[in-house]
Design a protein that fits this description.
Blueprint: H1 3-16, E1 26-30, E2 33-37, E3 45-49, H2 56-68, E4 75-81, H3 89-95, E5 99-100, E6 104-110, H4 111-115, E7 125-129, H5 133-146, H6 152-165, E8 170-177, E9 180-189, E10 195-203, H7 212-226, E11 231-236, H8 241-247, E12 250-261
Parallel strand pairs: 3-4, 10-11
Antiparallel strand pairs: 1-2, 2-3, 4-12, 5-12, 6-11, 6-12, 7-8, 8-9, 9-10
Helix pairs in contact: 5-6
GO molecular function: acyltransferase activity, transferring groups other than amino-acyl groups
Keywords: Transferase
InterPro entries: Acyl_CoA_acyltransferase, GNAT_dom
Length: about 260
């Protein structure tokens, strides 16, 4: 995999030419900014920008005003990549009132290579698809336990919206130990692109270190290959980045979320 060419392809397909997650979300391009606008339970934010020192501050102010005019949207995100310009765009966002979140590594691998990894689930665990509200509730509970308590509700709302509007574009999974969910993960399929996104891979603390996360990566890679996707990408935390690197993922950039609270 040529890292530079792959990053350029990612920027074009997933950012500059981004498609909405699903109806009723829409993607708008104006003033050097590509953004998704959606009802409040879905993700709202800037996906890509082509700005410079002269027009960046005005573009930032415009997003605040225009998202602020939507009463159903409480906040929106400006997703900043380490190669975005101008070089001080992050500082400009912070000065405009955006709250900076934790940076993550954009990691990409060829799906076929990852699909060939042997990574079975430990004995006694069962892999189940999430297709309804009950499953989404369990997935949200894993998210709260594995990450930050209280964040699962937003993940649940977004997943239910995806399952209702475009179930073919999302794969959500639970790993069950009897009747207890111990791991959850998702994969989004961006139609018309070469990329499938891996999201929300989280394991509750007492089940970590047993190969469950690795098994779900390999399983999703096989599904991506079956559906014709060439690449997998992940916004990886410091915890998952070393695992992904050992599996063959390459870090192509760093992503940092800047969130603006509107109300």
């Amino acid at each position: 995999m040529d890292d530079d060419l792959t990053l350029a392809l990612f920027d074009r397909q997933m950012r500059r030419e981004a498609r909405p997650e699903h109806a009723p979300a829409r993607v708008e391009q104006a003033g050097g900014v590509v953004r998704q606008v959606a009802p409040g339970e879905m993700w709202n934010g800037v996906l890509w920008s082509a700005l410079d020192e002269q027009n960046a501050d005005a573009a930032i102010a415009r997003q605040v005003v225009e998202y602020g005019a939507r009463p159903d949207v409480e906040s929106f995100e400006w997703k900043l990549y380490s190669h975005d310009r101008p070089a001080d765009l992050g500082a400009r966002l912070a000065a405009a009132g955006f709250e900076v979140g934790e940076s993550e590594a954009l990691m990409v691998a060829e799906a076929e290579a990852i699909a060939g990894i042997t990574a079975p689930l430990p004995d006694g665990l069962e892999l189940l698809p999430v297709t309804d509200a009950a499953g989404a509730e369990l997935l949200a509970a894993v998210h709260d336990a594995a990450f930050t308590v209280g964040t699962g509700a937003r993940v649940k709302a977004r997943l239910l919206a995806q399952l209702e509007a475009a179930p073919q574009n999302v794969l959500a999974l639970l790993v069950m130990a009897g009747d207890r969910p111990v791991c959850a993960a998702r994969m989004d399929f961006a139609e018309g692109t070469d990329f499938a996104g891996l999201w929300g891979g989280g394991t509750v603390a007492e089940w970590r270190g047993r190969g469950i996360y690795r098994a779900l990566i390999a399983h999703r890679a096989r599904v991506a290959v079956e559906r014709g996707y060439r690449y997998l990408f992940v916004d990886a935390s410091d915890q998952s980045r070393p695992i992904l690197a050992r599996l063959g993922f390459a870090q192509l950039a760093t992503t940092t979320p800047y969130e603006y609270q509107l109300r």
